[in-house]
Please model this.
Amino acid sequence: MAKRIFKYLLTFSIFLLVQVGVVPLLTIYELAPDLLVVGLVLSAIRHGATAAIVTGFLAGLAQDAFATHLYGLQALAKAVAGFVAAYLARDKLKFGLQVTLGITLVAALVHNLIRDGIYYFDADFSVLHLIVRYVIPNSLYTLVLAAIAHLLFAKSFERK
Model:
């Protein structure tokens, strides 16, 4: 148990450093992938709902440490996305590329809808604009990252 927790801390620390240090360089027109959501889906597939929710909350809280305002927004969005990913993965025994990408897409859509919906709450544009301009493109960008991760580390996306 302690070994697994240490492994997760190390993995998510690396994910967080890459998310904060490298992902801003990959940003295109304010669109960026979220590596922590990919790690969250990995946690949901391997260890179930409780681990995914706790992992999402803690990873989001760590990501919030780098934010300048709206503390707790990433923690909320990632905890809910972790629950959704674990719910979708609960009865699956085998996780091929399509299943993993489907779970990642839904989790990323939920995550981005919560995060961007609250973040741009005061902005002067419609919900449709929010979804078309931010939620869907950010989710698809995260999906590309998940596809690359699944192709490189397919064994990691198997249930323990």
